[in-house]
Amino acid sequence: MTANAAQAALEPTVERRIKILLVDDTPENLVSLEAALSGLGEQLVLANSGKEALRYLLDDDFAAILLDVRMPEMDGFETAELIRSRPRSRQIPILFLTGYRNEEHLFRGYDLGAVDFLFKPIVPEVLRSKVAVFVELSRSNAKLQEQADALRKQAEVLQKAEQKFRSLLEAAPDAMVVCREDGEIVMVNSQTEILFNCRRDRLISRNIRALVPGWTYRLRPGWDDDFGGPKAQPVERGIEMHAFPDGREAFQAEFSFSPLHTEDGVVVTCSIRDISERKKTEERIRELNTHLEERVLERTEALMRSNEELQQFAYIASHDLQEPLRTVSIYAQLLAKRYRGQLAGDADQFIDFIVEGSDRMEKLIHDLLDFSRVDARGTDFFTRMNCDDALNDAIRNLHSLIEESGAVLTRGPLPWVTGDPVQLTRLFQNLLVNSIKYRSEQVPRIHVTAHSQRGGEWLFSVRDNGIGIEPQYAEKIFGIFRCLQPRDKSSGSGMGLAICRKIVTRHEGRIWVESALGKGATFYFTLPGKE
Q: What's the CA gap between 58 and 199, in Å, rounded?
Protein backbone atom coordinates (compact mmCIF):
# COMPACT_ATOMS: atom_id res chain seq x y z
CA MET A 1 0.00 0.00 0.00
CA THR A 2 1.42 3.35 -1.03
CA ALA A 3 1.20 6.63 0.86
CA ASN A 4 -1.38 7.85 -1.67
CA ALA A 5 -3.54 4.79 -1.01
CA ALA A 6 -3.27 5.32 2.72
CA GLN A 7 -4.29 8.94 2.29
CA ALA A 8 -7.25 7.90 0.17
CA ALA A 9 -8.36 5.58 2.98
CA LEU A 10 -8.68 8.61 5.24
CA GLU A 11 -11.14 10.34 2.89
CA PRO A 12 -14.90 10.00 3.52
CA THR A 13 -16.71 7.18 1.74
CA VAL A 14 -20.39 6.27 1.26
CA GLU A 15 -21.81 5.38 4.68
CA ARG A 16 -22.77 1.72 5.05
CA ARG A 17 -25.96 0.64 6.82
CA ILE A 18 -25.58 -0.25 10.47
CA LYS A 19 -26.97 -3.60 11.73
CA ILE A 20 -29.31 -3.72 14.73
CA LEU A 21 -30.28 -7.06 16.31
CA LEU A 22 -33.90 -7.42 17.56
CA VAL A 23 -34.53 -10.46 19.80
CA ASP A 24 -38.03 -11.44 20.97
CA ASP A 25 -39.91 -14.72 21.02
CA THR A 26 -43.20 -13.02 20.12
CA PRO A 27 -43.54 -12.26 16.36
CA GLU A 28 -45.92 -9.38 17.01
CA ASN A 29 -43.34 -7.69 19.22
CA LEU A 30 -40.67 -8.10 16.51
CA VAL A 31 -43.00 -6.54 13.94
CA SER A 32 -43.70 -3.66 16.31
CA LEU A 33 -39.97 -3.09 16.96
CA GLU A 34 -39.18 -3.26 13.24
CA ALA A 35 -41.88 -0.72 12.46
CA ALA A 36 -40.66 1.66 15.15
CA LEU A 37 -37.01 1.50 13.98
CA SER A 38 -37.53 1.40 10.21
CA GLY A 39 -37.32 5.18 10.05
CA LEU A 40 -33.62 5.04 10.99
CA GLY A 41 -32.83 3.52 7.60
CA GLU A 42 -30.52 0.91 9.07
CA GLN A 43 -30.41 -2.88 8.60
CA LEU A 44 -32.64 -4.65 11.11
CA VAL A 45 -31.93 -8.33 11.91
CA LEU A 46 -34.76 -10.29 13.64
CA ALA A 47 -34.18 -13.24 15.97
CA ASN A 48 -36.97 -15.35 17.62
CA SER A 49 -34.80 -16.75 20.40
CA GLY A 50 -31.56 -16.34 22.30
CA LYS A 51 -29.98 -19.25 20.40
CA GLU A 52 -30.83 -17.67 17.04
CA ALA A 53 -29.39 -14.35 18.25
CA LEU A 54 -26.15 -16.07 19.25
CA ARG A 55 -25.89 -17.63 15.78
CA TYR A 56 -26.15 -14.14 14.19
CA LEU A 57 -23.46 -12.86 16.54
CA LEU A 58 -21.02 -15.51 15.32
CA ASP A 59 -20.70 -13.79 11.91
CA ASP A 60 -21.89 -10.19 12.23
CA ASP A 61 -21.24 -7.10 14.33
CA PHE A 62 -24.17 -5.01 15.57
CA ALA A 63 -24.52 -1.43 16.75
CA ALA A 64 -27.03 -2.46 19.43
CA ILE A 65 -29.02 -5.44 20.64
CA LEU A 66 -32.66 -5.09 21.75
CA LEU A 67 -33.16 -8.17 23.93
CA ASP A 68 -36.45 -9.37 25.46
CA VAL A 69 -36.04 -10.50 29.07
CA ARG A 70 -38.76 -13.18 29.17
CA MET A 71 -38.16 -15.92 26.56
CA PRO A 72 -38.56 -19.72 26.74
CA GLU A 73 -35.58 -22.09 26.87
CA MET A 74 -33.07 -19.20 27.25
CA ASP A 75 -34.19 -15.91 28.72
CA GLY A 76 -32.67 -12.50 28.01
CA PHE A 77 -30.32 -12.55 30.99
CA GLU A 78 -28.84 -15.94 30.03
CA THR A 79 -28.47 -14.75 26.44
CA ALA A 80 -26.77 -11.54 27.60
CA GLU A 81 -24.37 -13.52 29.77
CA LEU A 82 -23.31 -15.63 26.78
CA ILE A 83 -22.99 -12.52 24.60
CA ARG A 84 -20.69 -10.88 27.13
CA SER A 85 -18.58 -14.04 27.41
CA ARG A 86 -17.42 -13.72 23.78
CA PRO A 87 -14.66 -11.10 23.19
CA ARG A 88 -16.06 -10.11 19.81
CA SER A 89 -19.50 -9.18 21.17
CA ARG A 90 -18.48 -8.06 24.66
CA GLN A 91 -18.73 -4.33 23.88
CA ILE A 92 -22.05 -4.35 21.97
CA PRO A 93 -24.66 -2.24 23.81
CA ILE A 94 -27.64 -4.32 25.11
CA LEU A 95 -31.04 -2.73 25.71
CA PHE A 96 -33.37 -5.02 27.69
CA LEU A 97 -37.10 -5.09 26.83
CA THR A 98 -39.43 -6.05 29.66
CA GLY A 99 -43.03 -5.60 30.80
CA TYR A 100 -42.21 -5.70 34.51
CA ARG A 101 -40.58 -3.17 36.75
CA ASN A 102 -38.53 -5.36 39.04
CA GLU A 103 -35.52 -4.01 40.90
CA GLU A 104 -33.94 -7.44 41.00
CA HIS A 105 -34.22 -7.62 37.21
CA LEU A 106 -32.73 -4.17 36.94
CA PHE A 107 -29.76 -5.01 39.14
CA ARG A 108 -29.13 -8.26 37.32
CA GLY A 109 -29.41 -6.60 33.90
CA TYR A 110 -27.03 -3.79 34.70
CA ASP A 111 -24.66 -6.28 36.28
CA LEU A 112 -24.59 -8.15 32.95
CA GLY A 113 -23.62 -4.92 31.14
CA ALA A 114 -26.98 -3.62 30.02
CA VAL A 115 -26.98 0.00 28.97
CA ASP A 116 -30.70 0.60 29.40
CA PHE A 117 -34.11 -0.92 30.13
CA LEU A 118 -37.15 -0.22 27.99
CA PHE A 119 -40.54 -1.05 29.52
CA LYS A 120 -43.46 -2.28 27.50
CA PRO A 121 -45.50 -0.88 25.99
CA ILE A 122 -42.62 0.81 24.29
CA VAL A 123 -43.00 4.35 22.94
CA PRO A 124 -41.65 4.32 19.33
CA GLU A 125 -40.15 7.83 19.51
CA VAL A 126 -38.26 7.00 22.71
CA LEU A 127 -37.05 3.73 21.19
CA ARG A 128 -35.81 5.44 18.03
CA SER A 129 -33.99 8.20 19.90
CA LYS A 130 -32.23 5.74 22.21
CA VAL A 131 -31.20 3.36 19.40
CA ALA A 132 -30.14 6.28 17.16
CA VAL A 133 -27.57 7.25 19.77
CA PHE A 134 -25.95 3.82 19.60
CA VAL A 135 -26.15 3.79 15.81
CA GLU A 136 -24.24 7.04 15.60
CA LEU A 137 -21.81 5.80 18.22
CA SER A 138 -21.21 2.64 16.18
CA ARG A 139 -20.77 4.60 12.98
CA SER A 140 -18.28 6.92 14.68
CA ASN A 141 -16.38 3.96 16.09
CA ALA A 142 -16.29 2.36 12.64
CA LYS A 143 -14.89 5.53 11.12
CA LEU A 144 -12.31 5.85 13.84
CA GLN A 145 -11.31 2.24 13.30
CA GLU A 146 -10.99 2.78 9.55
CA GLN A 147 -8.87 5.88 10.10
CA ALA A 148 -6.77 4.03 12.65
CA ASP A 149 -6.21 1.21 10.14
CA ALA A 150 -5.30 3.69 7.41
CA LEU A 151 -2.92 5.53 9.72
CA ARG A 152 -1.35 2.26 10.75
CA LYS A 153 -0.83 1.29 7.11
CA GLN A 154 0.53 4.73 6.32
CA ALA A 155 2.89 4.41 9.28
CA GLU A 156 4.03 1.06 7.92
CA VAL A 157 4.70 2.64 4.52
CA LEU A 158 6.65 5.47 6.10
CA GLN A 159 8.55 3.02 8.27
CA LYS A 160 9.49 0.93 5.23
CA ALA A 161 10.54 4.09 3.35
CA GLU A 162 12.67 5.17 6.31
CA GLN A 163 14.25 1.72 6.52
CA LYS A 164 14.98 1.83 2.81
CA PHE A 165 16.49 5.31 3.16
CA ARG A 166 18.62 4.14 6.09
CA SER A 167 19.77 1.15 4.04
CA LEU A 168 20.77 3.44 1.19
CA LEU A 169 22.68 5.65 3.63
CA GLU A 170 24.49 2.64 5.06
CA ALA A 171 25.36 1.36 1.58
CA ALA A 172 26.90 4.70 0.55
CA PRO A 173 30.73 4.61 0.30
CA ASP A 174 31.00 8.14 1.75
CA ALA A 175 29.95 9.57 5.07
CA MET A 176 26.28 10.62 4.85
CA VAL A 177 24.79 13.12 7.29
CA VAL A 178 21.15 14.31 7.31
CA CYS A 179 20.71 17.70 9.01
CA ARG A 180 17.96 20.16 9.70
CA GLU A 181 18.13 23.70 8.37
CA ASP A 182 19.91 24.92 11.51
CA GLY A 183 22.56 22.16 11.27
CA GLU A 184 21.10 19.72 13.82
CA ILE A 185 22.09 16.17 12.87
CA VAL A 186 19.12 13.79 12.60
CA MET A 187 20.64 10.79 10.85
CA VAL A 188 24.12 9.42 9.99
CA ASN A 189 25.58 6.25 8.51
CA SER A 190 28.41 4.06 9.78
CA GLN A 191 30.96 5.79 7.51
CA THR A 192 30.26 9.03 9.40
CA GLU A 193 31.13 7.34 12.70
CA ILE A 194 34.46 6.20 11.21
CA LEU A 195 35.24 9.52 9.55
CA PHE A 196 34.58 11.66 12.64
CA ASN A 197 35.72 9.07 15.21
CA CYS A 198 32.42 9.39 17.09
CA ARG A 199 29.58 7.00 17.89
CA ARG A 200 26.20 7.48 16.28
CA ASP A 201 24.37 8.20 19.54
CA ARG A 202 26.78 11.09 20.22
CA LEU A 203 26.35 12.49 16.71
CA ILE A 204 22.53 12.53 16.63
CA SER A 205 21.10 15.90 17.79
CA ARG A 206 24.58 17.44 17.67
CA ASN A 207 25.11 20.47 15.43
CA ILE A 208 27.27 19.66 12.43
CA ARG A 209 29.05 23.00 12.76
CA ALA A 210 30.78 21.57 15.83
CA LEU A 211 32.55 19.19 13.43
CA VAL A 212 32.59 21.38 10.31
CA PRO A 213 32.66 25.07 11.35
CA GLY A 214 32.28 26.26 7.76
CA TRP A 215 29.21 24.12 7.07
CA THR A 216 26.74 26.02 4.92
CA TYR A 217 24.62 25.54 1.84
CA ARG A 218 22.83 27.78 -0.62
CA LEU A 219 19.17 27.63 -1.55
CA ARG A 220 18.17 28.73 -5.03
CA PRO A 221 16.16 31.99 -4.87
CA GLY A 222 12.43 31.37 -4.93
CA TRP A 223 12.98 27.66 -4.33
CA ASP A 224 10.29 27.42 -1.64
CA ASP A 225 7.68 29.54 -3.44
CA ASP A 226 4.30 27.86 -3.94
CA PHE A 227 5.37 24.94 -1.80
CA GLY A 228 3.08 21.98 -2.42
CA GLY A 229 4.90 19.01 -0.92
CA PRO A 230 8.45 17.69 -0.72
CA LYS A 231 10.63 19.52 -3.22
CA ALA A 232 14.32 18.82 -3.88
CA GLN A 233 16.89 21.37 -5.02
CA PRO A 234 19.59 20.31 -7.51
CA VAL A 235 22.60 18.77 -5.76
CA GLU A 236 25.45 21.16 -5.04
CA ARG A 237 28.75 19.29 -5.46
CA GLY A 238 32.45 19.77 -4.92
CA ILE A 239 32.35 22.14 -1.92
CA GLU A 240 35.63 21.88 0.01
CA MET A 241 35.81 22.62 3.76
CA HIS A 242 37.93 21.60 6.73
CA ALA A 243 36.48 18.98 9.12
CA PHE A 244 37.50 18.46 12.77
CA PRO A 245 36.89 14.89 14.00
CA ASP A 246 36.92 14.01 17.69
CA GLY A 247 40.43 13.22 18.92
CA ARG A 248 42.04 13.41 15.48
CA GLU A 249 43.74 15.98 13.28
CA ALA A 250 41.63 18.12 11.00
CA PHE A 251 41.36 17.06 7.38
CA GLN A 252 40.12 18.59 4.14
CA ALA A 253 36.78 17.22 3.00
CA GLU A 254 34.63 17.51 -0.09
CA PHE A 255 30.90 18.08 0.47
CA SER A 256 27.85 17.55 -1.70
CA PHE A 257 24.60 19.14 -0.52
CA SER A 258 21.10 17.94 -1.41
CA PRO A 259 18.45 20.11 0.32
CA LEU A 260 14.87 18.83 0.47
CA HIS A 261 11.97 21.13 1.37
CA THR A 262 9.39 19.19 3.42
CA GLU A 263 6.34 20.18 5.44
CA ASP A 264 8.55 20.10 8.56
CA GLY A 265 11.13 22.44 7.04
CA VAL A 266 14.35 22.08 5.06
CA VAL A 267 16.28 18.82 5.42
CA VAL A 268 19.82 18.74 4.02
CA THR A 269 21.56 15.49 3.07
CA CYS A 270 25.35 15.92 3.05
CA SER A 271 27.83 13.58 1.41
CA ILE A 272 31.28 13.99 3.00
CA ARG A 273 34.52 12.59 1.58
CA ASP A 274 38.03 12.85 3.01
CA ILE A 275 40.19 14.26 0.20
CA SER A 276 43.43 14.68 2.16
CA GLU A 277 45.27 12.01 0.17
CA ARG A 278 43.87 13.35 -3.09
CA LYS A 279 45.13 16.83 -2.22
CA LYS A 280 48.58 15.45 -1.40
CA THR A 281 48.59 13.56 -4.69
CA GLU A 282 47.52 16.66 -6.62
CA GLU A 283 50.29 18.66 -4.92
CA ARG A 284 52.84 16.01 -5.87
CA ILE A 285 51.55 16.01 -9.45
CA ARG A 286 51.83 19.81 -9.57
CA GLU A 287 55.40 19.60 -8.32
CA LEU A 288 56.22 16.89 -10.83
CA ASN A 289 54.60 18.92 -13.62
CA THR A 290 56.62 21.96 -12.59
CA HIS A 291 59.85 19.96 -12.63
CA LEU A 292 58.79 18.32 -15.88
CA GLU A 293 58.07 21.68 -17.50
CA GLU A 294 61.47 22.92 -16.39
CA ARG A 295 63.15 19.83 -17.77
CA VAL A 296 61.19 20.05 -21.02
CA LEU A 297 62.14 23.71 -21.33
CA GLU A 298 65.80 22.89 -20.70
CA ARG A 299 65.63 19.98 -23.15
CA THR A 300 63.88 22.14 -25.74
CA GLU A 301 66.51 24.84 -25.44
CA ALA A 302 69.23 22.20 -25.73
CA LEU A 303 67.57 20.71 -28.82
CA MET A 304 67.15 24.16 -30.35
CA ARG A 305 70.86 24.88 -29.77
CA SER A 306 71.76 21.47 -31.14
CA ASN A 307 69.51 21.94 -34.15
CA GLU A 308 70.94 25.38 -34.82
CA GLU A 309 74.49 24.05 -34.50
CA LEU A 310 73.59 21.14 -36.79
CA GLN A 311 72.16 23.53 -39.39
CA GLN A 312 75.26 25.67 -39.20
CA PHE A 313 77.45 22.58 -39.49
CA ALA A 314 75.49 21.30 -42.51
CA TYR A 315 75.69 24.69 -44.18
CA ILE A 316 79.41 25.14 -43.47
CA ALA A 317 80.27 21.54 -44.33
CA SER A 318 78.31 21.65 -47.56
CA HIS A 319 79.84 24.99 -48.50
CA ASP A 320 83.44 24.03 -47.61
CA LEU A 321 83.22 20.61 -49.27
CA GLN A 322 82.41 22.13 -52.64
CA GLU A 323 85.85 23.67 -53.20
CA PRO A 324 88.03 20.54 -52.81
CA LEU A 325 85.42 18.49 -54.68
CA ARG A 326 85.43 21.02 -57.52
CA THR A 327 89.25 20.71 -57.68
CA VAL A 328 89.03 16.90 -57.90
CA SER A 329 86.39 17.15 -60.61
CA ILE A 330 88.38 19.68 -62.71
CA TYR A 331 91.62 17.66 -62.60
CA ALA A 332 89.77 14.43 -63.33
CA GLN A 333 88.24 16.08 -66.40
CA LEU A 334 91.73 17.32 -67.49
CA LEU A 335 93.08 13.77 -67.13
CA ALA A 336 90.25 12.46 -69.26
CA LYS A 337 90.81 15.15 -71.90
CA ARG A 338 94.61 14.90 -72.19
CA TYR A 339 95.29 11.24 -71.62
CA ARG A 340 92.19 9.43 -72.87
CA GLY A 341 93.36 6.40 -74.85
CA GLN A 342 96.99 6.87 -73.83
CA LEU A 343 96.91 5.02 -70.50
CA ALA A 344 97.05 1.29 -70.22
CA GLY A 345 94.35 -1.01 -68.86
CA ASP A 346 91.18 0.37 -67.30
CA ALA A 347 92.58 3.87 -66.72
CA ASP A 348 89.97 5.58 -68.96
CA GLN A 349 87.11 3.78 -67.16
CA PHE A 350 88.51 4.70 -63.75
CA ILE A 351 88.81 8.34 -64.78
CA ASP A 352 85.15 8.29 -65.94
CA PHE A 353 84.16 6.87 -62.55
CA ILE A 354 85.97 9.71 -60.82
CA VAL A 355 84.33 12.38 -63.00
CA GLU A 356 80.83 10.80 -62.59
CA GLY A 357 81.27 10.41 -58.82
CA SER A 358 82.48 14.01 -58.51
CA ASP A 359 79.45 15.31 -60.39
CA ARG A 360 77.07 13.25 -58.23
CA MET A 361 78.79 14.38 -55.05
CA GLU A 362 78.63 18.01 -56.15
CA LYS A 363 74.89 17.72 -56.80
CA LEU A 364 74.38 15.93 -53.46
CA ILE A 365 76.22 18.66 -51.55
CA HIS A 366 74.25 21.33 -53.40
CA ASP A 367 70.92 19.67 -52.41
CA LEU A 368 72.10 19.22 -48.83
CA LEU A 369 72.96 22.90 -48.74
CA ASP A 370 69.46 23.73 -50.02
CA PHE A 371 67.93 21.49 -47.35
CA SER A 372 69.83 23.24 -44.55
CA ARG A 373 68.82 26.64 -45.90
CA VAL A 374 65.05 25.98 -45.60
CA ASP A 375 64.92 26.79 -41.88
CA ALA A 376 67.51 29.52 -42.22
CA ARG A 377 64.91 31.77 -43.84
CA GLY A 378 62.89 33.37 -41.03
CA THR A 379 59.25 34.39 -41.07
CA ASP A 380 60.33 37.81 -42.33
CA PHE A 381 60.22 36.26 -45.81
CA PHE A 382 56.53 35.33 -45.43
CA THR A 383 54.16 37.53 -47.40
CA ARG A 384 50.67 37.45 -48.90
CA MET A 385 51.19 35.73 -52.26
CA ASN A 386 49.36 34.07 -55.13
CA CYS A 387 50.18 30.38 -55.56
CA ASP A 388 49.52 30.72 -59.30
CA ASP A 389 52.59 32.97 -59.47
CA ALA A 390 54.71 30.42 -57.61
CA LEU A 391 53.62 27.64 -60.01
CA ASN A 392 54.33 29.87 -63.04
CA ASP A 393 57.86 30.55 -61.76
CA ALA A 394 58.42 26.82 -61.23
CA ILE A 395 57.24 26.04 -64.79
CA ARG A 396 59.60 28.71 -66.22
CA ASN A 397 62.54 27.27 -64.27
CA LEU A 398 61.78 23.81 -65.73
CA HIS A 399 61.07 24.98 -69.26
CA SER A 400 63.85 22.89 -70.86
CA LEU A 401 62.97 19.72 -68.93
CA ILE A 402 59.29 20.10 -69.82
CA GLU A 403 60.06 20.66 -73.50
CA GLU A 404 62.45 17.71 -73.60
CA SER A 405 60.00 15.29 -71.93
CA GLY A 406 56.93 16.58 -73.79
CA ALA A 407 55.08 16.82 -70.48
CA VAL A 408 51.52 18.16 -70.58
CA LEU A 409 50.60 20.37 -67.57
CA THR A 410 47.02 21.25 -66.65
CA ARG A 411 45.91 23.28 -63.67
CA GLY A 412 43.00 24.60 -61.68
CA PRO A 413 42.80 27.99 -59.96
CA LEU A 414 45.19 28.29 -57.00
CA PRO A 415 44.52 30.42 -53.90
CA TRP A 416 46.28 33.27 -52.16
CA VAL A 417 48.18 32.22 -49.04
CA THR A 418 50.69 33.66 -46.59
CA GLY A 419 54.05 32.06 -47.29
CA ASP A 420 57.62 32.29 -48.58
CA PRO A 421 57.38 32.79 -52.38
CA VAL A 422 60.87 31.38 -53.03
CA GLN A 423 60.25 28.21 -51.05
CA LEU A 424 56.75 27.59 -52.43
CA THR A 425 58.17 27.96 -55.93
CA ARG A 426 60.81 25.36 -54.98
CA LEU A 427 58.02 23.12 -53.60
CA PHE A 428 56.09 23.13 -56.89
CA GLN A 429 59.33 22.77 -58.85
CA ASN A 430 60.47 19.67 -56.92
CA LEU A 431 57.07 18.00 -57.25
CA LEU A 432 56.97 18.66 -61.01
CA VAL A 433 60.53 17.33 -61.43
CA ASN A 434 59.58 14.21 -59.47
CA SER A 435 56.53 13.60 -61.73
CA ILE A 436 58.59 14.06 -64.91
CA LYS A 437 61.60 12.06 -63.69
CA TYR A 438 59.56 9.00 -62.70
CA ARG A 439 57.36 8.96 -65.78
CA SER A 440 56.10 5.89 -67.55
CA GLU A 441 56.37 5.13 -71.28
CA GLN A 442 53.41 7.45 -71.85
CA VAL A 443 53.67 11.20 -72.30
CA PRO A 444 53.84 12.74 -68.79
CA ARG A 445 50.53 14.32 -67.80
CA ILE A 446 50.48 16.44 -64.65
CA HIS A 447 47.49 18.20 -63.09
CA VAL A 448 47.81 20.79 -60.28
CA THR A 449 44.81 22.08 -58.32
CA ALA A 450 43.67 23.19 -54.84
CA HIS A 451 40.45 22.97 -52.79
CA SER A 452 39.29 24.77 -49.66
CA GLN A 453 38.97 22.55 -46.56
CA ARG A 454 37.21 22.86 -43.20
CA GLY A 455 39.16 24.95 -40.74
CA GLY A 456 40.25 27.42 -43.40
CA GLU A 457 43.18 25.42 -44.81
CA TRP A 458 43.84 24.67 -48.49
CA LEU A 459 44.44 21.20 -49.89
CA PHE A 460 46.79 21.12 -52.93
CA SER A 461 47.24 18.11 -55.20
CA VAL A 462 49.84 17.30 -57.90
CA ARG A 463 48.64 14.27 -59.86
CA ASP A 464 50.67 12.43 -62.54
CA ASN A 465 50.45 9.29 -64.71
CA GLY A 466 53.94 8.05 -63.88
CA ILE A 467 55.23 4.68 -62.70
CA GLY A 468 53.82 5.18 -59.19
CA ILE A 469 55.14 3.62 -56.01
CA GLU A 470 54.09 0.80 -53.72
CA PRO A 471 52.02 1.94 -50.70
CA GLN A 472 54.60 0.65 -48.16
CA TYR A 473 57.09 3.21 -49.44
CA ALA A 474 54.65 6.16 -49.27
CA GLU A 475 56.30 7.56 -46.11
CA LYS A 476 59.91 6.54 -46.75
CA ILE A 477 60.26 8.62 -49.92
CA PHE A 478 60.16 11.83 -47.85
CA GLY A 479 63.33 10.88 -45.96
CA ILE A 480 66.79 12.35 -46.63
CA PHE A 481 68.77 10.57 -49.39
CA ARG A 482 65.83 8.22 -50.06
CA CYS A 483 65.63 7.12 -53.68
CA LEU A 484 63.64 4.02 -54.63
CA GLN A 485 65.47 3.44 -57.93
CA PRO A 486 69.10 2.23 -58.08
CA ARG A 487 71.73 4.94 -58.37
CA ASP A 488 72.70 3.84 -61.87
CA LYS A 489 69.10 4.39 -63.04
CA SER A 490 68.47 7.68 -61.30
CA SER A 491 70.26 10.98 -61.47
CA GLY A 492 68.60 12.29 -58.31
CA SER A 493 70.15 12.70 -54.87
CA GLY A 494 67.03 11.64 -52.92
CA MET A 495 66.71 15.11 -51.37
CA GLY A 496 63.90 16.59 -53.46
CA LEU A 497 60.92 15.24 -51.50
CA ALA A 498 62.72 15.73 -48.18
CA ILE A 499 63.05 19.43 -49.07
CA CYS A 500 59.33 19.48 -50.01
CA ARG A 501 58.34 18.12 -46.57
CA LYS A 502 60.57 20.61 -44.78
CA ILE A 503 59.07 23.53 -46.75
CA VAL A 504 55.47 22.38 -46.06
CA THR A 505 56.24 21.80 -42.36
CA ARG A 506 57.75 25.28 -42.09
CA HIS A 507 54.45 26.60 -43.47
CA GLU A 508 52.48 24.64 -40.78
CA GLY A 509 51.12 22.14 -43.29
CA ARG A 510 51.26 18.42 -44.08
CA ILE A 511 52.37 16.46 -47.15
CA TRP A 512 51.70 12.88 -48.21
CA VAL A 513 51.29 10.71 -51.30
CA GLU A 514 48.64 8.31 -52.53
CA SER A 515 49.80 5.89 -55.19
CA ALA A 516 50.00 2.34 -56.47
CA LEU A 517 52.66 0.74 -58.62
CA GLY A 518 51.94 1.48 -62.29
CA LYS A 519 48.95 3.71 -61.42
CA GLY A 520 50.60 7.10 -61.17
CA ALA A 521 50.88 9.15 -57.98
CA THR A 522 49.08 12.09 -56.37
CA PHE A 523 51.02 14.25 -53.95
CA TYR A 524 48.86 16.18 -51.46
CA PHE A 525 49.93 19.02 -49.22
CA THR A 526 48.08 21.54 -47.08
CA LEU A 527 48.72 25.22 -46.40
CA PRO A 528 46.91 27.42 -43.87
CA GLY A 529 44.41 29.83 -45.34
CA LYS A 530 45.01 32.48 -42.64
CA GLU A 531 45.60 36.08 -43.62
A: 55
